[in-house]
Amino acid sequence: MNKLPNNNSTGVSLQVRGLRKSFDGDEVLKGIDFEVKPGEIFVIMGPSGSGKSVLLKHLIGLEAPDDGEILINGESVHTEDIASKYRMALVFQSGALLNSLTVGENVGLYLTEHRLKEPEEVEKIVSEKLSDVGLKDIENKMPNELSGGMKKRVAIARALVIEPQLILYDEPTSELDPLSSVVVGEEILKLKNRIHVTSLVVSHDRDLAFGIADRIAIILDGNIVTVGTPDEVKNFKDEAVQKFLHAYLKRETE
Length: 254
Description:
Elements: E1 14-23, E2 26-36, E3 41-45, H1 52-59, E4 67-72, E5 75-76, H2 82-85, E6 88-91, H3 103-107, H4 109-113, H5 119-132, H6 148-160, E7 166-170, H7 178-195, E8 198-203, H8 206-212, E9 215-220, E10 223-228, H9 230-234, H10 239-245
Parallel strand pairs: 3-8, 3-9, 6-7, 7-8
Antiparallel strand pairs: 1-2, 1-4, 4-5, 9-10
């Protein structure tokens, strides 16, 4: 039986320095710089096409930068033994639950597939992690029996089984109604207070961002144009930023 790598619940720092990426001559990331502090909830906001998704793909290793670097606690993510030192989890935009598996099987999949725990211990861990996100006694339900908000929370529970020090969230409130979005935001806040995990949230949800973030970064056209507390970002004097933050539908009247 294998074991999980040694780990503690203290959040890690994440540094992104000079990150650049082009596709077919089109520069999508134009020298991205920011740092996420240990235990912080850091939200990256921006409109569609601003570079959020490409940036996230670099953070999880699906894309390699043309230039620049990504560091965890000062160590390059491309270091051979980085995975044995630090634990990173991703909560997918869709939840990415396997419809052929029960909720319990989805949450415990990593542990069972890698033979990290005995079956009895996997069941205990799954129950604990579901309870951590406010879901009890649903292990035997199928994903198609769950609401959108419940699926997102199950996805968070699945991320928690590896005891992550860094969690990346990809649009965690997409396709959710306002009440479900609030519940998901509350769970992200609870995790910060309970296990001090570092959280990086990529979202265009303004209510979520200003409700949970310690700091917010605004990305526009491949550039981070400002980083600050919610109040600092709200008061940032830039026309493009203010237009994004206060966009609304105008009804024409006769």
